[in-house]
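User: Second chain of the day. Same drill as before.
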Amino acid sequence: MALPDGTAESRRQLETWITDIAIRLLILGVLAYWSIKLIAPFVILVVWAAILTTAIYPVFVWLRDRLGGRSALAAILITTLGLALILGPAAGLIASSAGTVEEFSRNMAAGSFALPPPDPAVQDWPLIGNKVFELWTDVHDNLADVVGRNKDVVISTGKTMLGIAAGLGFDIIMFAASIVIAGFLYSRGHALADGCRRFGQRIGGQRASGFVDLAGVTVRNVSRGVIGVSLLQALLAGVGMMVAGVPAAGILALGVLILAIVQIGPAILLLPVTAWVWFELDTLTAVLFSAYIVPVLLFDNVLKPIVMARGLKTPMLVILLGVIGGTLAHGLTGLFLGPVVLAVAYELLIAWVGTRVPEAPAGPAAPPPA
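Assistant: Same format as last time:
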């Protein structure tokens, strides 16, 4: 049965329209895939730059106003300070490590390398003192024999340490590059925020622009509540250990900072230090150190929720779950992305639950009984 001319023409027009849409979607898909492949190596850089810009933007505005509205100068000063804080200690550590490795290699080649004998006080260290003393004595008496007996362990440990050093160096370079990229974004902060709001409106309507503001507030609160409180906690712990005379107080304070940021908590480091103080120092010093360090261990449990909850309607439990879960899933980047994702998801869920469901129209009335 032949179709009427009008029907055949409509079908041809429909097929042409479908073919045209399919070709357009294919071209857009290829462009999108190609673009993602090209920018994939820089995604972490851009994400970190966006996080830094969001977290530090209030500081940039304050400094710009103090400099008479000179945005470029304020951005340069903040970028320079950030690079100095990151690259300064890293350069010192690299130079010190290079000098140590060079001296170690020279002594090994000359056959003159030897560890000093262990101090008898090492035996008094809690739990590990005797084993450390025996191993140290063995290495001091016959280093070559110890290395030969544990060759596989030495090689494996060396590879692990080199891998950690290489990863740390790469992370430092990436973070420094993110600081530089953020330096170019400060002066365009308002324009970028407006662009994100318009993009959100295109996806989710007027409500989505509020999610952009929620994400910004969450990032700033997490940076203050996690990194800011962790810095304060590490500083106070370091001062206490230096005053008490704990060896390597600076390195231990750095460990406190890292453990606090990644949400493990510094207790696993400071509690053994406190035990060492009780075993090695006088009673008065141990009592004073304990009375000082216990509040330092606990004050973040009070201060962190207060700082992170400022200006947020999202429950504190949601933010903390995002911080911990994001850190476990994605490392330091997840520390910021986790609470943002959970906060937005929570607000979407609350909005969906609170939306009134329209009632179904009533059916025709039943006829009255005969």
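The first helix runs from residue 5 to 39.

User: Great, on to the next one.
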